[in-house]
Each structure stands twice: as C-alpha cells, then as structure tokens.
Specification:
Layout: E1 2-9, H1 13-23, E2 29-32, E3 48-50, H2 51-56, E4 67-77, E5 84-94, H3 96-109, E6 113-115, E7 118-126, E8 129-137, E9 141-152, E10 179-188, E11 198-202, E12 212-218, E13 224-232, H4 240-249, E14 258-268, E15 277-278, E16 281-283, H5 299-319, H6 324-327, H7 329-354, H8 357-365, H9 371-380, H10 385-394, H11 401-422, H12 431-449
Parallel strand pairs: 1-2, 1-9, 2-6, 4-11, 9-16
Antiparallel strand pairs: 3-5, 4-5, 7-8, 8-9, 10-13, 10-14, 11-12, 12-13, 15-16
Bound molecules: flavin-adenine dinucleotide.
The site of flavin-adenine dinucleotide (FAD) has 40 residues, from helix 1, strand 3, strand 7, strand 10 and strand 14.
C-alpha cells in the first residue's frame, strides 16, 4: 500500500490552498481530484472574493492574469429596487480555474503529489482512527492509500465524511433548508456596464425566494457579467435557472447578450460543522460548511479553514499524534477568526428568510439598519443593540413596531451565539455538551421567529 503523511480528497479552493500551506512543511502530501489537472477549480461560482481574505492569511494578492475584475464595493438593492445601500470594500472577480491551479502548481513545485481523475471512495478506519482511504484511479482501478491524516475537501459531495458512521462528530449532515440552490451565467452584454467595479446584490422574495440574485461585472472587460440567482433549499421553490431567465435575463440590458458559461450547484448556508477534526481526519471548505450564511461566499473562508487545519496537521505530524485532541486547535483557530461570526450571521440569515418583501422595503427605506451597520454585520457578525435601540426611539410611533422588536431579539441572539462560539471547548471531551447548548439556542430562535 502507498503511504502518505497527509491525503487530501478534492482540489477545489479548499484542497488546493491546504496543499499550498502544507507544502512549506515538507510532509509527504498527496492531493487527489476526480477532475484532471486542467479542470481543477472549475465549478459554478459568482467568482467574488474580498481582498481582506488574502491579507489576513499573509497571502500575496492574486496575480493580475488570474483576475477578471477589480471590485470597489457592493450595492445592495431593496425588493422594489428603489433603495440601495453601498458597502465599500476592495475585492476581486477571480478566474476560479486559474487561481486554484496556481495554488496547486505552487504546492506541486514544492513536492506535493497530485493524482488527477482519481476518486476518493471510502475512508479506512482502524480502532477509532481514520488510517487511509480507498481511491479509484481512472484506467488503473481501485487502490488503498494509507495516511496519518486524511482530509475531506470534496465540497458538497462530502465524499469521505458521509461514508463514516454518524457517531463520528465530523459527519454532520445538512438540513436541506440550510442549503442555497444557486445558478449562474457568465454573459457578454451588447453595452458596456456602468460602474463595473461595483457588484450588485438584489434581495427580493418574489424573484429569489430565501436568497438573492446578483450582477457581478468583470470590470476588466467592461461588458462581461456573472449574473446568478440562489433560492433556499428544501422549500419547493421554483428552479433558480427558470427564475433567472423569467425575471432577469428577460430585462432590456440582456437583450442580444451571449452566454459564455452556465451552471449551478448547492451552497451550504449555515453555521460551521461542529468540529473540523477527529481522530486521523479533518474536513474543510464546503464539506465543513465554512461559508458565509448570508451571502453564500465560501472561497475566503475555505482558505481560512484550510490554513487553520494546516497548522494543526503540522503540529500533529511533528508530535506523532493524529488524535482529535492533537488536531483540536484547528477548531479554536477557525471559530475565533470566523466561525463565531458565521454562526451569528446564520441567525441573521434565518431572520432575513422570514421577512416579506414589504418588510425589507420598509426597513431599507426607513434606514432601520443603515449602510454602516450593514457593513458591521457583514464584517464582524455584530448587530449592535445600541443601533437597534436608537432606531426604536427614532421610529417610535411609526408603523411596524413589531419589526423593530424582532430585530432587537435578533441582535440578542446574534451576540449570544457569537459568545458561545468564542467559548468553543478547549478539548474534544467538551464538544457534546457545548453543541447541545448551540442546538438549544438555535431551536429557541427558530421557535421565536416562526
Ligand atoms: C452559483 C454559485 C455562486 C457562488 N458564488 C460565490 C462567490 O461569488 N464568492 C465566493 O467566495 N463563493 C461563492 N460560492 C461558493 C464557493 O464556490 C464555494 O464555497 C467554494 O468553491 C468551496 O470550495 P471547496 O474547495 O470547498 O469545494 P469545491 O470547489 O466544490 O471543490 C471540491 C473538489 O472536490 C472534488 N471532488 C468531489 N468529490 C470527490 C471525490 N470523491 N474524490 C476526489 N475529488 C472529489 C471536486 O471535483 C472539486 O474539485 C458560490 C457557489 C455557487 C454554487
């Protein structure tokens, strides 16, 4: 049997960035993907990523030739498109295939092995530890590969963790209602786009129930746009492709436009998985639900999860101990930097999904939450109670006081859940009890808003 220190299943942004981070350590690492090298990173995406993700991880900004456009901010439109909030922030529209291949190539140059057209089939388990994986190599058949640590970076396929017994805490299946079903097209328009450095998000229950639709220009070309739509899963809403065509592509600005690419996929939009690691195994990216629950962006948080996991893996390999305890720091690292905010944003997402278009139009036109507050919510997952209290005083006597009361409850829940995640258990033994608290808090919230 072939042996590696680390085997990574899947080479999307999560697997490729993990390989990149690990490649500096010199440990023997193998990455496998069902796709051939040429198609690495090729999946439907809005392609937007904030610059801060690279800064936070000490990564160089992506090279100019992998960038489709430079971003200076996002406009969020109300359901009637009468009100718009601008959230300023630098970012990129990134060429997903070129950037993922860039990360993987850097790792390969430093000694990481890559097997393309290879499917991770099943984890090998011995005495409570994952000790390897069986893989199916195209044209060569089935092989077993031993690993000290196996990483599931297979995206929503969750190809490895879903084959573990459900007593393993790294296997936590997802409720369909916590998924967003998204479809997007890259289109060349007949006319140049105004302000192509500004991305646009439109919230409208009528057009995109439980989600939103987006218009993300690739500013380098000026007339190319990534346009897509996502709806909440498990609700029997119409197909997002049909909704996009019916309500958006039928608009005047798309007349005569040409489709360059098209496709859809599911995105997890919930709090993170309860643990990123267990004995001999780690899970990262979409497979670990490391995605912003409000806007569905998952590339930056996938890189962060992989960065935290790489540090724990190096520690475990250096100490010769691949137990959950030895890998545990990955959870603390991720939750402090992102998971706590993600869990708070999950509360906000559940609240937003309950609002009607009228509520949203009213809330945005009355500036119940202002642009700067929206920025704070999206950057830190904080909806300051003082902001809500101020709005309640200012708007006293106006219609819909219930909306403000609800918002106050949301702010409380967001701060409570954030605190819980910042107090993530220091050791695996505390996980079950802690997670019971998390589940109780979410059930209470769901009951309150239902
Ligand atoms: C329509 C849409 C729009 C989006 N827009 C944005 C956006 O604008 N910005 C943003 O940040 N995020 C966005 N996201 C989310 C983002 O695309 C994901 O969060 C991110 O790509 C997750 O990366 P990943 O590496 O975890 O998973 P993936 O990119 O899905 O990669 C998983 C890899 O594993 C491989 N694989 C699967 N099963 C196996 C197996 N059994 N064996 C071997 N290999 C396997 C796959 O081939 C793939 O290469 C969007 C998602 C969708 C669907």
């Amino acid at each position: 049997m072939v042996s590696y220190d680390v085997v990574v299943i899947g080479s999307g942004i999560a697997g490729a960035s993990l390989a990149y981070f690990l490649s500096r350590s010199g440990f023997k690492t193998l990455v496998v993907d069902v796709k051939p090298f040429e198609r690495i990173g090729d999946k439907p995406c809005g392609d937007a990523i904030g610059k801060h993700h690279f800064d936070e991880l000490g990564l160089e900004a992506p090279p100019d030739d992998v960038i489709e456009g430079y971003v200076e901010g996002i406009d969020v439109y109300s359901p009637l498109e009468k009100v718009k909030y601008r959230v300023v922030g630098e970012g990129y529209e990134i060429h997903r295939v070129k950037y993922t291949k860039y990360l993987l190539s850097e790792a390969i140059n430093r000694g990481v092995d890559f097997w393309g057209e290879t499917q991770g089939v099943e984890p090998l388990v011995k005495e409570g530890f994952v000790v390897g994986v069986s893989v199916w190599v195209r044209g060569k058949g089935k092989h077993e590969v031993s690993s000290k640590i196996l990483v599931d970076a297979s995206g929503m396929a969750r190809a490895i963790v879903r084959r573990l017994d459900d007593k393993w805490p790294v296997r936590e299946d997802i409720d369909q209602k916590d998924l967003n079903i998204a479809y997007r097209e890259v289109r060349r328009l007949k006319k140049e786009i105004e302000e192509p450095e500004i991305l646009r998000i439109y919230v409208s229950k009528k057009i995109a129930p439980g989600g939103y639709w987006w218009f993300f220009p690739y500013s380098k070309e000026r007339n190319v746009v990534n346009v897509g739509l996502g709806t909440q899963g498990g609700m029997n809403y119409p197909n997002p492709k049909d909704l996009l065509h019916q309500h958006i592509i039928s608009r005047e600005e798309f007349a005569g436009s040409e489709v360059i690419e098209a496709g859809g996929a599911a995105v997890p939009t919930r709090r993170p998985i309860k643990t990123l690691v267990w004995n001999g195994i780690a899970v990262t990216g979409d497979a670990a639900y490391a995605v912003n629950p409000v806007h569905g962006g998952g590339k930056g948080s996938a890189m962060l999860a992989s960065w935290c996991i790489s540090k724990s893996i190096i520690h475990a390999l250096e100490t010769g101990d691949s137990s959950a305890r030895s890998l545990w720091e990955a959870n603390i690292c991720f939750n402090r930097r992102y998971g706590a905010k993600q869990a708070a944003l999950d509360i906000f997402r559940l609240f937003l999904q309950k609002l009607s278009d009228d509520d949203l139009e009213y809330g945005m036109s009355r500036k119940i939450i202002k642009e700067e507050d929206l920025n704070e919510v999206s950057l830190r997952g904080d909806l300051e109670l003082s902001v809500v209290e101020k709005a309640m005083r200012l708007l006293a006597g106006l219609s819909r006081p219930s909306l403000l009361f609800k918002l106050r409850r949301v702010a409380h829940y967001m701060s409570d859940v954030k605190r819980l995640y910042l107090n993530y258990p220091e050791e695996p033994e505390g996980l079950l009890k802690w997670y019971e608290e998390v589940e109780k808090l979410y059930s209470r919230f769901k009951e309150e808003i239902s």
